[in-house]
Amino acid sequence: MTNILTGISASKGIAIARPYLLKDPDLSYEAVEIDNVSSESAKLKSALEQAKIEILVIQDNLKQSGANEEAEIFAAHLMLLEDPELISAIEAKISEEKVNVEAAVDEVMQSYIIMFESMDDEYLKERAADIKDIRKRVLSHLLNKPLPDLSLIDDEVIIIAEDLTPSATAQLDVRYVKGFITDVGGRTSHSAIMARTMGIPAIVGTSNASQVIEADDMLIIDGSKAEVLINPETNVLKNYQSMLEEELRSKEFLLKYVDVPTKTTDHVNVNLSANIGSPLDLEAVVKNGAEGIGLYRTEFLYMGSKQAPTEDEQYEAYKKVLETMGNRPVTVRTLDIGGDKELSYLDLPKEMNPFLGLRAVRYTLQETELFRIQLRALLRASVHGHLKIMFPMISTFEEFHSAKQLLLEEKSNLKDEGIQVSDDIEIGIMVETPSVIMMADQFAKEVDFFSIGTNDLTQYTFACDRMNENVSYLYQSHHPAIFKMIEKVIQAAHREGKQVSVCGELASDTTAQIVLVGMGIDTLSMNASSILESRAFINGQSKSDLEKVVEKVKECTMENEVIELLNKHIDK
Fold first, then answer.
1. Structure confidence at residue 125 as a pLDDT band (50, 70, 90)
2. Alpha-carbon 233 to chain mean position
3. Interval 359-384: pLDDT, tens
4. Is the pLDDT of residue 461 over 60?
5. By three-state DSSP, how is residue 159 classified?
6. What share of the chain is helix, strand, coil (3-state, %, to 5)?
7. CA distances, 236 to each of 1, 243, 453 (Å)
8. Region of poorest pLDDT, from 34-38, 167-171, 212-216
9. d(CA 298, CA 333)
């Protein structure tokens, strides 16, 4: 009988192959008291240099294969290896506590890992994988135990590992590596992002794949179901082989949508944009034909460092995104920190209900110096493309007015300094709170655009913490109440000639797209890998038919009724 493992789908698709069991060397060590501090410091310097050489080789190989954006991932690794604060902390532990270099490296890096893993935000939490990667590489040199070289694989395989580091993922040759399965991890890890970029299926978070899968097993990855089939029966294997052939034909088919507009059969345009966390995501954005950036999460510029990024550092990041996108709009969300996202160098209070506390614009309006630096960087970059700036977590007009006033003040200051700033910047807000929904008519007269963050809007509407398993049943993104709120915003905006986007998880959900397009949404912003599939779906729909479905959705009282109704429309 077929054995089935379940996990988290990091990258959709089907893969069929034998496993490659990735086993790291034993990097255990004995913590001992040392006498010769200089000797241990010399070992540290040598290990860091060797690690840097290896990463530079990985970077060069990626660049030579044309994967320039993936190569940039390792710039963060090099920065860590050269971080004076990190190195000083390790050297201090050696000299002050008289511990051997292996123990010092391990303890300091583990403290960094713990800091990131304690964050509730999945994207930030997964940044711990970068530090784990560096820790493993440095220890391997200190202990003289080389890490496996995945670039040597020359047979079709599926990688099985407890975890797969970004540097290991970068060595994968997609001619032979058909997918990977890990015990731990999430959708937002660098390795998961790279899997989606490379177009190979991946299942993470299985908890025990590396323990139960054996070398001679036959495996099937079903990325859509987040399942791993071990030693499938003959008829199951044949079915999946047919599905894989169909999937390959479908991928080839979707490529024809890269350079075409998103338009319903009755000629209604919908802009399909991409969500990004850094300039590293741009290659996938361009490759999948995104019509803009609908959400640039700027908080990721602030992570992985002991201090906030400077104005110049931010300017360079924003400039790169704007220049890459050309005339296509780039919507940048100002710093959204707090709630489930913390940074060690920011003085955020410990709160009973952080999601209802000092977060996003509430924080930046208190820390105006931090806010002004970001606004100046954005304004300076505005001349390099089509910039749209939006403020997150707006609840009142006072907040919007205060944030906009700071922006206008910095624009005036820059012009006084002789620095050019675009006069065509659009200023909008995230719609995440019921108070903005209820005042949408008035807000629409003052903002240039709305962007609906359905993740937060859903949890605030139903008064439930989406991270809390005890009340997760209340997090109903397809509830008719949510769709009615979205429609209210769309109607208010359109009356004033303003545009509305949805940039939460709902945007890439096919069933939700039926309702959102039917209601007249202007932009859907999603992970770049979802764009072509979404475009193919929307281009096959009639706006007038979807409007009829919307009317039926509004008559529903429960989420399961809505989902059943939408699935029927897809299946007909």
1. low
2. 36
3. 889 989 999 999 999 999 999 999 99
4. yes
5. strand
6. 50, 15, 35
7. 11, 10, 40
8. 167-171
9. 6
For residue 126, the SS3 value is: helix
Q: Burial letters for 274-308: b for 16+ Cβ neighbours within 10 Å, e otherwise?
A: bbbbbbbbbbbbbbbbbbbbbbbbbbbbbbbbeeb
CB 280 within 8 A of CB 300: no
User: What does residue 171 show for φ and ψ, rounded to 5 degrees?
Assistant: -85, -5
Catalytic residue among 190, 386, 478, 479: 190
For residues 293 and 287, give the distance between their C-alpha atoms in angstroms, rounded to a whole number: 13
d(CA 326, CA 285): 13
Is the distance from CB of 289 to CB of 565 less than 8 angstroms? Answer: no
Answer yes or no: is pLDDT of 153 > 90. no
Q: Known catalytic residue: 503? A: yes
Question: What is the sign, positive or negative, of the torsion defined by CA atoms of 431, 510, 494, 288?
Answer: positive
Domains along the chain?
A: 3-23+148-254 (3.50.30.10), 37-142 (1.10.274.10), 258-571 (3.20.20.60)
Structure tokens at 320: 């790169």
State the Cα angle at 398 between 394 and 399, rounded to 5°. 35
Q: Please report which helix (H) or strand (E) contains residue 198, including its range.
A: helix 190-198
* Cα dihedral sign, 13-14-20-23: positive
Q: How far apart are CA 560 and CA 540, in angstroms?
A: 25
Residue 229's pLDDT band (boundaries 50, 70, 90)? very high
Q: What are phi and psi of 269, to 5 degrees?
A: -80, 140
Q: Of 141, 384, 386, 503, which one is the catalytic site residue?
A: 503
